[in-house]
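Section handout 9: paired folding examples.
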Amino acid sequence: MHRQDSTWNRQELYEKVWQFPLVTLAGEYGISDVGLAKVCRKLQVPLPGLGHWTKIACGHCIARPPLPAMEDVPVLIRQIRKSETPILPEDAPELERIESVSVAKTPPVTKAMLAHPLIEKTRLLLNEAPSRDGEKLWATREAEWLDLRVTKRCLARALRIMAGIIHMLEREGFNLVVEKKSSESTSAIVYGETIRFGLIEKFRQVKPTPKLDASSRYSYNPIRLEPTGVVSMEIWSYCRGLQKTWRDRESGHLEDQLPKCLAGMMRIALRERAERDRREKEEQARHKRIDEVRSELRQIEKEEKKIKTLEREAVRWERAERIREYVEAVRRDAVRKTNSEERAKILERVKWAERQADRIDPLKPSPPSLVDDKDKVIRRLEAAEGWWWARSAPEEESETVPSDR
């Protein structure tokens, strides 16, 4: 990320700290909100107090203090971080398109735009939805309707805003998807990514005059919520560092900010696509590393198996050589025998022992032996015993079962 040195503009900083929260503004400048507050104090820029933005969201109008005159304004050097959206290289041409969308004007809402099937269906469902005055409208979960969390008084305006958003989305070649009502039902398919959004009307807390209960010395002061008519469009897809909320302000209504809303969706979609591509590449690299390690482990196990085989063969060869040495000693002893019959028996046993040594020796072919048929003989025995048990089992059962008499 490229950087360049600049100085803090006191007047510009004053205007921005009263338009955006410090946390949001600090991300734009590339520093922390604490660091930005320190800069404001050095430049004697007044800051909003605690709860300021909550009151604004609830519809309160709060006057801001003027920027005080200051002599010998200190020159504070700051590092400007170039705005850089981490996107895929092939998506770079889309940034110019996003900028042109952002600076465009909101198209006027026509009857054709209001006749969109989703607008009509949402209007019918929310107009028929039972609700008390001042409460947000809510239709059945079994139907598909646009995510409008507004009161009946604000419904017509919310539908016009949503009609404008749908028109601009379709004009740019994007689609709108509405699911059966859950927590977030309305989504725009932008660059193949699902961007969930909706319109929300802000409420403010109203504290009525305390009423003293005659039977108690404590007062009962219920707090109720009152709609403000302030409408905001919020994007619920997680994306750090990009704007996701646009609302009515003193400088303009939400209707004037719809192109910026669409541009924000497009930026978030490009960011999500790049993030998804990054995760996929990381996952592929992880699987590749796993395959490499597994292949290495298989080679190690194969080598261990060869070593164990070598050790077993060496042991067998050593046993065979010891048997041959013993057989040779027996043969020499047999030659000294005077009894020809006894000598013949010993020599016959020597031949048998040599064959057994060859069976053990891994360097010589193994001659056939009676031991090779052991498994076959065992299976034949099991089959024979099974046949005998099948013939004898009924007789034994008849002897062991007592009579009913």
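Moving on to protein 2 of 2.
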Amino acid sequence: MNKHIVSLPGDGVGPEVVQEGIKLLHAVAETFGHRFEFTEYPVGGMAIDMTGSPLPEETLAACRDADAVLLGAIGGPKWSDPTAAVRPEQGLLGLRQGLELYANLRPVRLSPALLAASPLRPDRIEGTDLMVVRELTGGIYFGAKQEPTAAGVAFDTMRYTESEIVRIARIAFDLARTRRGMVTSIDKANVLASGRLWRQVVTDVAKTYTDVGLDHLLVDAAAMHLLRRASSFDVMLTPNMFGDILSDEASMLTGSLGMLPSASLGAGKLGVYEPVHGSAPDIAGQRIANPIGTILSTALLLRHSFDLHDEAAAVESAVDRVLAEGARTADLAQPSEATVGTIEMGDRIAAAVRDTARRSPKGQEDSA
């Protein structure tokens, strides 16, 4: 298989973790007999400095022509003025809109080796394996807004249409069919009109998925139950803002925000894959950032854009193996534990991919 991947390192620790993601994809290509080509383009703050735009036309055009996009992180103190006309996050929103990516998948799976790394008791989180399906191009982030006025007034509009809710709901129900067969839909139907529409439409979609269960939770109750009984969730279907907040909360179940990957998808195979964490400017350049969120994002890339399910599983298995062997970046380590840096963690997981895959029938067949 020959595939072209656009790399968008971005800002802060973005270039450091993307480098490790590319390293893992090279290991997969070598082991399974594929060919992945990479080209790099600017986005976010780096792009503002280079071109004046957080998403240059050349970058967007390259992403449209690619088979997949691997993104690092954007933003930092240099561009943090919320009143600035041009801001790094505009590049991310523009990328989602320009590529028509309306579904964000955020898997939250607790590696058994990290039970002690979570701030929650092991009995609260053991067995956690859930998928947040977040609507990505509607809701309050994209609705009509009013910047603060001299009179001290501002607003953001949470707006949804039936068609937007139907398409994201179908993604959630289809995913549930491949998992444990349960969708929990999140809304605020007791207060918000858009929440009542959300609940009504999701209920209607569920009627065509008789093999998948459905329940509804208000977002505040969902936030509580994530801490009380995380392992009971399978697929969580959320509007844009609620999914943003709940998935960050869920990251602490795994021990660190640095562990979480994500995939932003549309109607076709093209997707943008990135860790959930931000640019972490306080540790940029120190090579201590956790690359696992990016590495697990490459597993999502392999699975969803390339249909390489065995290869994706090899990456995930390699992560579990290296963590089980005791490798910890600083964000995961207990006070008495030694740590490894970004590059060493990437090296260990790449080596484990080669070893794990070569021992599997698929790896042996493709490497012959």
